[in-house]
Specification:
Blueprint (H helix, E strand, L loop, with lengths): L4 E9 L6 E10 L2 E4 L2 E5 L9 E5 L3 E2 L7 E5 L9 E5 L4 E2 L5 E2 L1 E5 L11 E5 L6
Antiparallel strand pairs: 1-2, 2-3, 3-6, 4-5, 7-8, 9-10, 11-12
C-alpha cells in the first residue's frame, strides 16, 4: 500500500566539505494536511533532582482520529540528561476548537546513580 506524502527538504551546510544535514518537513499525508503539537513539562523528583523537557511531536494527519510520536532530551541536571520517547493518546477536543493529546511515560535510565524519572502531561493545541 502506497500513501502519497508531500513536503520539502531543507539542506544545511555547516562549513565543512564532508558534513551536511537535511531536515524533512512533511506538509500532507494521504491528501490531508498535517500538524504538530508543542509539549513541555518536568519529570518526577528522583535521586535528589528533576529534569525539564520541551519539544514538538512528529506530524500527523489533520481532520482524522490520530496519535503522535514524540521525542526529547531532558535538561542537564545532576551531571546527566535522559531521553523521553513515546506515543500520545488519541486527540481530545478543546472547547474553542483544535485539540490536544495526553502523554506519559518513563525516561531512559541514566546518571552516576542509574535511575529513571516518570513524566506526564498534555500537549499544546495543534499547529499547522
Amino acid at each position: 500500500m502506497e500513501i502519497p506524502v508531500t513536503g520539502f527538504v531543507v539542506h544545511r551546510e555547516d562549513g565543512s566539505d564532508s558534513e551536511h544535514s537535511h531536515k524533512l518537513y512533511i506538509t500532507s499525508w494521504n491528501g490531508r494536511p498535517v500538524h504538530v503539537h508543542p509539549f513541555a513539562g518536568e519529570t518526577s523528583f528522583d535521586v535528589g533532582h528533576k529534569h525539564h523537557y520541551a519539544g514538538r511531536t512528529e506530524p500527523a494527519p489533520s481532520g482524522v482520529q490520530h496519535v503522535h510520536n514524540y521525542y526529547a532530551v531532558t535538561s542537564f541536571n545532576a551531571g546527566h540528561t535522559h531521553k523521553i520517547r513515546g506515543t500520545t493518546g488519541q486527540a481530545l477536543p478543546l472547547p474553542g476548537g483544535g485539540h490536544y493529546h495526553y502523554f506519559e511515560g518513563y525516561t531512559t535510565v541514566d546518571g552516576s546513580t542509574p535511575h529513571r524519572h516518570h513524566y506526564r502531561g498534555n500537549t499544546g493545541n495543534e499547529e499547522g
